[in-house]
Amino acid sequence: MQTVIETIVCVLLLVGSLFTLIGAVGLARLPDFFMRLHGPTKSTTLGVGGIVLASVVYFSAHDNFASLHELLIPAFLFLTAPISAHMLAKAGIQQRVPLSGATRGRPPVTGACAERGDTGELLERREE
């Protein structure tokens, strides 16, 4: 039984570490600000979730009772990561950070466009 639990913990640690590594590589290699937001907010959140879940499984089996207080870490992370990414994206739009040509879905050009929900590219197409 102990070998099964250790195997589960090892798999969860490897999967969590892989997601975290992918997020870190994405943060370093993606070309612009808006694309770089996806690395830390998506895959790194899953990576931390896998690592904490491995910790819950290990200490629950080791101490013979459920160690559920560790679940607060991913709960707060899952709540705060999307909110902080949204705030960073809005700040990037407001500061007009430069975009890569590979970025799909351009942010609004002006505040008036942002209220209507369309981008400058869509506005130009409607006028043609």
From TrEMBL:
Parts of the chain that traverse the membrane: 6-28, 40-59, 71-89
Signal peptide: none
Pfam family name, one: PhaG_MnhG_YufB
Compositional bias segments (type: Basic and acidic residues): 115-128
Ranges where the record places region Disordered: 100-128
InterPro entries assigned: PhaG_MnhG_YufB (IPR005133)
GO molecular function (one): sodium:proton antiporter activity
Coiled coil regions in record: none
Keyword Cell cycle: no
Entry keyword annotation includes Cell membrane: no
Keywords assigned by UniProt, alphabetized: Membrane, Transmembrane, Transmembrane helix
NCBIfam families (UniProt xref): CPA3_mnhG_phaG, PRK12674.1-5
Identification of the protein by name: Na+/H+ antiporter subunit G
Biological source species: Paraburkholderia sprentiae WSM5005
